[in-house]
Amino acid sequence: MRFGLVHRIMTNALAALGVLAVVNSASMSPWVNVITLGGLALAIAVPEGWQQKAWLRHVATAGPLVLFFVEGGRLLSGQSALDVAVEFAALLQVVRLATRRGAAHDQQIILLALLHFVVGTVLGGGLAFGLCFLGFLVVAPGALVLSHLRREVEGNYRQGARDRTGLPVDVPRILRSRRVVGRGFLFATGLLSIPIFIFTAALFLLFPRVGLSLLLINHARPGRMVGFSDRVDLGDVGVLRNDPAIALRFEVPNLPDPPPARITLRLRGTGFDAYDGRAWARTVVERRPESRFGDTYSIARMPKPNDRIVSFDLEPIDPPVLFFPQQTAAFRVRQQGDAMLSEPTLISRGPEGEYRYGGADTRGLRYDVYVAPDDEILTSPPLQEIDRRRYLALPATFPKRIAELAEEWTKNEPTPRAKAKAIEEHLKKDFVYDTNSPSGGTASPVDHFLFESKKGHCEFFSTSMALMLRAVHIPSRNVTGFVGGTYNRFGKYYAVREGDAHSWIEAYIDDGPRSGWQTFDPTPSAGAQPLQSTTGTWVYLRDLVEAMSQRWTQHVVGYDLRQQLHIVDSLTSRYERARGRAGLTRGLGERLTRPPVVGGVLCLLGVGAYVLWRRRQRGNPKDLPPKPLPESREIQNAAAMYRALEQALLVHGLMRPAEQPPLRYAESLEKRGHPLADEVFELTQIYLGVRFGGETLAPAARKDFDARVRDLRAQKLADAPHSAA
């Protein structure tokens, strides 16, 4: 393959990998991503022949300045400094790639690509960043070597270096050459990625880890998940039903073999007590820090040995709400990073039984939930009269016929629990689940749903039941969360997606042993089931990629001091077990095989081997670089002959440019019609024959050459203008 083509391909690949790493790691806006990726494609497609065009040089000068002022304006308008800097670095690569000229610009492209990967590392890139980084390790050695070679070639050309024929270095010819880069070169540079990868992995494992809070850089999720903020419009949760993005993962102990492909686990997030006819909100919005015992927080009581433990891996969402299954007694936060170096995770309790997390770490949260047995009754505090009034409040425009319908459905039921079950059953059986309900656009959505369309999604069902319960004097509140869980065969966990978002109600029932807030879900069962398929090739590939992404996030992006110490403890315990099996646990053998002793011996052996190798290198003449061969007497004589000719030409004001070889200079004198051109051309031919043609100049011929040079020096020129250099 041609040297120049291979170099261009590798440089393009390196630049593209760097830009993709930034796009996948940074939270740039969609339009910036489109501009960056589109510009990258156009920059790669720019023909090499355009590099010398004047307008492209103007772009190379003006482009960075325009970018600087545009991004500076965005910074002054309130944009994040980190986002602006990342966008500037990505777009600067596009400009440099489109306007490059020569090896110096190619090295700038490589440097920018390296900067992009540093940015992606700081931002905690996901699996896509990891794949880009592996590609970078493979391509970078070859791109660096070829860039260095091209820079040397261009440097020799600028310094007037000549090849063996006396002609200047022909850069285009070298770039077209197929002898510089072959399969062996590509294979060798590809193999270089192996030791680089090993060295990088060793640094990653051994270098002390600190939290990202020390860098004051937080990479938060850009979008908000509807349904969990302080106000939720009727219809918000329903739009999520087709969203496949993972919201959280959980692991359930003691599953059967094989595990069920899908389970319906109800995960409570937050609740709302005030409805104004169109949206749910909270009367109380105050949140307070929750007390803890170590890393454990009590919801109903402290953990017991017979509690089931369900482990949750929550993706970073906004707002940062925690989700709990029914019968949750307590939960324990698994701290990430070093608590001494990074800001600890803060848990706060809000209204309506909501829990949120906060802190500098925006990678989500991992926590264990202690679930009480189903037959255990978890008591809740009695409802105060002031709170009861909140949970019985109806909107000012509440239609009378909704209250009449609630009375009709519950008139034969003697207890609050029976009334709630009656309303729940009527809604489940007499109404249809539909995510495209026309009721959302009406002035009174619930009234239209109950009496006109009779179809809607979960929020219409839950809101209708909550209002009807209040109409029959049963306190109620609307609750949002998730219902679902699809098993991932590769990650051994259940995935809950944003499309599994759901809404139901809680009613305060005080007529039985389970007095307190009770859960009711009036949505037909089809509407509460996860929509994601569990079979097929696409599902298989999706599970594989999602499991790899989770492992990357946990063990690479989330690699912290705790995991580092765990690796050290694991290696230490394995070494101790090996010593025990070898019988080296007492006496001299125990003392000689202690880790510090073994480490010291290995270091001494390494230093000794290096010293021995260096001494052998200095003492072995075969390994020394060969001494340059002395020039022959003929070559020395030829060089002296041409120096005499150049000195004679200087008398007439003629000086050969350093980058022009002797023969080309003589030909240029002929083209200009200089009176000395013929004589200079003949003397130059004699010099070239001796210097490069291997001819031997007889003593008489040498005397004749010297005499002709003296005559040329003494010659008087009548045409003065020809003497200009």
In short:
This protein has 23 helices and 20 strands. It is an alpha+beta fold and 725 residues long.
The average pLDDT value, as a whole number, equals 82
Number of strands: 20
In percent, how helical is the residue content? Answer: 40-55%
Biggest beta sheet attributes: 7 strands, antiparallel
Structural write-up:
- The chain is of the alpha+beta class.
- A hairpin with a 4-residue loop joins strand 17 (486-488) and strand 18.
- Mean pLDDT is 82; it is low at 211-223 and 719-725.
Looking at this protein, list some descriptive labels:
725 residues, disordered C terminus, 20 strands, five-stranded antiparallel β-sheet, 12% strand, seven-stranded antiparallel β-sheet
Topology, pairings included?
Blueprint lengths: L2 H23 L4 H16 L8 H23 L4 H18 L4 H20 L4 H32 L12 H6 L6 H9 L1 H14 L24 E3 L12 E6 L14 E7 L1 E2 L3 E3 L6 E2 L6 E3 L9 E7 L9 E2 L2 E6 L12 E4 L5 E4 L6 E7 L13 H8 L7 H11 L5 H15 L1 E2 L11 H9 L1 E2 L1 H14 L4 E8 L2 E3 L4 E5 L3 E9 L6 E5 L4 H4 L8 H21 L3 H21 L5 H6 L2 H25 L13 H19 L10 H11 L4 H15 L7 H16 L11
Parallel strand pairs: 14-15
Antiparallel strand pairs: 1-5, 2-8, 2-18, 3-9, 3-16, 4-5, 6-11, 7-10, 8-13, 10-13, 11-12, 16-19, 17-18, 19-20
Helix pairs in contact: 1-2, 1-4, 1-5, 1-6, 2-4, 3-4, 4-5, 5-6, 6-8, 6-9, 11-14, 12-14, 20-22, 20-23, 21-22
